[in-house]
Amino acid sequence: MALMNAAETPIQAQAAAKALLAFWRAAGVDMDVAEAVYATSAKTAAPVRAAPPPAPKAPVARPRAKATSLVDNAVALAKSAQTVAELRAVVMGFEGCALKATARNTVFSDGVDDAPVLIIGEAPDRDEDEQGKPFAGAAGQMLDKMLAAIGLHRQTNVLLSNTIFWRPPGNRAPTPGEVMTCLPFVERLIELKQPKLLVLMGKAASNTLLKREEAVTRLRGRRMSFSSEGLALPVNAIVMLHPAYLMRQPQQKRLAWADLLATQAWLEELGVARVP
Q1: How far from 168 is each of 118, 142, 144, 179, CA to CA, in Å?
Q2: Cα(114)–Cα(132) distance, rounded to whole angstroms?
Q3: What angle do CA 254, 257, 258 make, to 5 degrees?
Q4: Structure pTM?
Q5: Less Cβ around it within 10 Å: N or C end of the chain?
Q6: Contact present, 190 and 233 (Cβ < 8 Å)
């Protein structure tokens, strides 16, 4: 009896032979010679090679020209502004960020243009979007009380702005593209003002402008600095917890108070005039 016919593959033939040997063994046949023959045939049988996997498809390059051109345009427009007022007008007329189409208002700044203290927040929320001012609503009221405790007021010695100038739908987090499109204007604002102290409120502002990845709780209260190509010297910077975060986590207000005291001490060293 042949162990393999023309239609069988070597693997199929081996399986059939192995089953036949098992049957003989169960019937009491002496299998020493038969198993030796089977082992030899298994080693010499030609292996069946698996079909090679298909070659991976080359990744399709996604067009980036549009995103790059939007950022380049933002950089050019930002550099064209020579005053804070001019920069405000440029941002108001900028059409390169899709968020503007769904927002009610452009939220650029509030306070005094030539103030010695510049505070940068995150993206506008509903209250800011409705009023067209950064740090509006309940969070803004909390911030005003915090600043007043160390002699800072948006009416006299503080300018407030954001890292994003239009509210993302549903208060979602801004995309990296939206952040990069607005960033040239934020950096230009700092370059034009060259504030005595830059206060970065929250994770988005601190991570974006300081190019750091740490949590805001690890960055807060430390004396840091902001640098850019348009600045001859770095600008003093400090990170604080955002008032909206403090409203959600009131137990962290003790940390905010410690940061306010640290800010007050630094302002005194810098000779910044404050209002009781």
Answers
A1: 23, 23, 24, 11
A2: 20
A3: 90
A4: 0.75
A5: N
A6: no
